[in-house]
Write a structure and sequence with these properties.
Elements: H1 3-14, E1 20-22, H2 23-28, H3 33-41, E2 45-49, E3 52-55, H4 64-73, E4 91-92, H5 94-101, E5 111-115, E6 126-130, E7 138-141, E8 144-147, H6 149-158, H7 163-175, H8 181-188, H9 203-213, H10 219-240, H11 242-258, H12 270-279, H13 284-302, H14 312-322, H15 337-343
Parallel strand pairs: 5-6
Antiparallel strand pairs: 1-3, 2-3, 4-5, 7-8
Helix pairs in contact: 5-6, 6-7, 7-9, 8-9, 10-12, 11-14, 11-15, 13-14
């Protein structure tokens, strides 16, 4: 086999192994150690680890040190012949898994690989951890078996990794939908005391504690914060515009009479609306400005009246809000929205629609025989 044939044989196998091949694999392919040395001397191969070679034409792969360490666990086995969970197989884990998953900024001076049974290595930069990793907790990154984000976080907590670094991993994983906070909280609760929390602390307490240490925030925290800010802004806006509050009350009353949901006020509970009304203070100048501002809106809404999109009472409220103020000595204005609300029958009214009393026999003074 000449040099060109040797390179061709090695290239066929290395193509599916990031351009790498072990000396044991090369021997099985018919290329011995002397031939590997000569190919290295002429620059066709590079020795990137003890017993591991890289085809120069293939270029340097990412995370080279991790891939070299993983190949050396089973130097005779090609990548495609290594099932997850085999006695001598390994899964990239802990800080090395964070590197491959691109989570956080946790330091990874060593290559960390979890193996199902105790093993040793003479490589100073490789750390083998004995642990059973179920297939459900293994994912594949660039052809390498890697622990999932959920398993990686619990592994880091189990080994006592720095809380701030773990918090950064949690925040990144949650933003990328690699974990759910609810599922993670169930798994990490036993580590709460290890990280300085009380015995009664929940998994959520630990998660928020770690994320805060990292100076990060979870996506669900950001959504909750935005919701609260939006809610506060809505309350202040409605407090400054009592006309809209009255309009919502009229719409709610009309919807109750028609037994249909209110398209405007159904999102706000009565207690909240009443609180907003109490915040509202009479301001004639503001009311006049809002009346003028609502006139174009009222014109647009009137076009919807024929389609019966909104109840008639809503249009009546708009007429009231946008009507010009009465002139001195003129006729009294029509009842406002609050009058319409007061005239609406409540759910606790004692009169039925046919005018008869809704009280029971004892309340009406009659007795059953």
């Amino acid at each position: 086999m000449d040099r060109a044939e040797q390179v061709a044989v090695l290239s066929g196998a290395a193509a599916d192994q990031w351009g790498l091949v072990t000396a044991a694999q090369a021997k099985d392919l018919g290329v011995n150690g002397v031939q590997l040395l000569r190919l290295t001397e002429v620059g066709l191969l590079s020795n990137v680890g003890r017993g591991v070679y890289q085809l120069t034409a293939a270029g340097v792969p990412t995370h080279l040190e991790v891939k070299v360490a993983w190949l050396r666990l089973q130097p005779k086995q090609f990548l495609w012949d290594r099932p997850v969970g085999a006695p001598d197989s390994g899964v990239v884990s802990h800080a090395s898994a964070c590197q491959l998953l691109d989570l956080g900024d946790i330091p990874a001076p060593n290559v960390e690989i979890s193996v199902p049974r105790r093993r040793t290595t003479t490589e100073p930069f490789v750390r083998l951890r004995t642990a059973q990793v179920p297939p459900a907790e293994v994912t594949t990154v660039d052809g390498l078996p890697v622990t999932t984000a959920m398993r990686t976080i619990t592994d880091l907590l189990h080994t006592g990794a720095d809380g701030g670094h773990v918090g950064g991993v949690v925040a990144d994983a949650e933003r990328r939908d690699l974990i759910t906070v609810d599922d993670l909280a169930k798994r990490v609760q036993p580590f709460a005391r290890k990280y300085g929390l009380k015995t009664s602390a929940t998994g959520y307490d630990l998660i928020y504690h770690l994320v805060a240490q990292a100076g990060e925030s979870l996506r669900r925290q950001e959504v909750d914060r935005a919701s609260r800010e939006g809610f506060d802004q809505a309350v202040h806006l409605l407090a400054e515009r009592p006309d809209l509050v009255e309009l919502m009350w009229v719409t709610r009353a009309a919807a109750r009479r028609r037994n249909t949901p209110s398209p405007i006020a159904s999102a706000l509970g009565p207690a909240l609306m009443e609180s907003i009304r109490r915040l509202s203070q009479p301001n004639p100048a503001m009311e006049e400005a809002m009346r003028k501002a609502l006139v174009p809106f009222a014109e647009s809404v009137r076009a919807m009246q024929h389609a019966a999109v909104l109840p008639p009472s809503t249009f009546k409220a708009l007429e009231q809000v946008t009507a010009p103020p009465p002139t001195p000595g003129g006729t009294n204005p029509s009842p406002g929205p609050s009058d319409a609300e007061d005239s609406a029958p409540s759910s606790g009214d004692d009169q039925e629609s046919d005018g008869t009393s809704s009280q029971g026999p004892e309340e009406s003074g009659t007795q059953a025989n």
